[in-house]
Structures are given as C-alpha cells and as structure tokens.
Amino acid sequence: MTSEQMRVSYTPDGDTIRCWRTVGQAAAEVRVRLAYIDAPEIGNPQTTAYAVSARAYLRRLLALGEVVDVRIVGQDLYGRILAEVIRIRDGGNCGLRLIHGGYAALWQCPRSRGEYYAAQEIAQRKRLGIWRTPGPWQTPWLYRGRAATMSHDPLDYPASRYLLYALIGLIGGLVARLQYWAGGEIPHCWRCALFRLGVDLLTSGFCGVLTLWLSAEFGLSGVMTAFLAGISGHMGSRALFLVERILQRRLQRLGEK
What we know:
There is one protein chain. The protein is an alpha+beta fold. Helices cover about 50% and strands about 15% of the residues. The chain folds into two domains: about 1-145, CATH 2.40.50.90; about 155-255, no CATH class. The strands form two sheets. The chain has a five-stranded mixed barrel with strand order 1-2-3-6-5. A two-stranded antiparallel ribbon has the order 4-7. About 35% of the residues are buried.
C-alpha cells in the first residue's frame, strides 16, 4: 500500500472524490474511489435520497481544499484510484465513518479488515441509514452492474452530453424570443435583431449546461433534467428581454433630458 497527500477539489458522490496531487507531486487532478465501500447510486431513482445523504456526509467529512492522506490499494475498471482516505487533522478514516453511519455498504472488503465489518454490524444493529429498511440501497453494486456505472461527476460527462443540453436550453430560449417577436417586439434594425438573437441563444445555451451541472447535485433523472434545461433556457431569454426593456427606458429618459 502506497500513500500520498492530496488536496480535495470536489466530491461528486458518496464514495468518490476528486483530488489535486499538489503535495510533493506534479500538479494533476485525479479521481479517488474509496476502497472497500459502496454508497447508493445517485442515478437510481429508488436510492437517490440515500445517495444524496451519503454525498452530503462525505462533504462534511472532507472540506474543499483539505489535505488528506490517500492510501492507495489499487485502481478500478474506470481508471479511478482505489484508496482509503484519511483525514490528516484527526486521523479519521472516511470510508470507515461512512460504513459506521449507515451511509454505505461493504464491497470487496477483505476479511482481514475486521474494523470495517465491525462498523457495518453496528450500523445494521442500530438500523442506521441504508439499514433502516430493506431495499436496493443496501446493495448498490447490483444497480451499478445493470447501469454500467455512468459517472455522476459533471467533469466526466462527454462533450456530446453538454452539447445536447445546451441545444435543449437554446431551443427554450429561441421559443421565448420568437414569442416576443410575434408580439411585435421586433427591432427595426436587422443587425440589432441578429445581435440580440445571438446573445439570447448563448445565454439560453449556458442555462441548459448549468441545469446539467445542477442535476448532478440533486440527482435528477435525465427526463427531468431535459425538461428543466428547456425551461431555464426559456427563462434566461425572458430575463434578457426584461433587461433590454429597462435599458431602453433609461436611454429614452436620458434622451428626453
């Protein structure tokens, strides 16, 4: 087992963190999967509440920018470092605390690591977290096997996914702009009309991408995320139109003076 000190940069779910190898290493961001544990999957509608709870607890354990001791035990199929993550400030084992609190279940843990099994037995006996009632949240690896483990870290999303949600937001913004033009709000100058349309589409596309990021935080389904991306693009366009109206009125008042 090798050990490195890394700085926490992001926590996408209840058993994964992103870290910077900036302490005694060349700067590089890596993904670290907590060894021996498995937290409920955010992408599974049945387990989202437990998954969000596990992520929130891990974020409380590890502050952004905190330096931790990463004790590497291997690498998983998705290129992530498998490691025990230890808080330097108090020596706390984050994976073990997740197990002890009922936020995660043991997964591929060797019998020699008796402290993990003891922690899970305590959580089960006290019916904490995922052990409160039987359900798929107690066996997250089964869902992951069926779902082929799609990452819920926005930084791992392919460019095509960003483009898709930008397009959805753009369509929402275009609908709003066409509604305004249909109501007689068409600029007399065609250059002004094209400029406003361009700014409008950029804003609504950005709103669609922002919605994709927020969906990862709240564990929303793909259908709900697409719906909200269109709505956010539409509302972004409407907000721009209101700003235009306010600026026009102020310019008119200045002209009258």
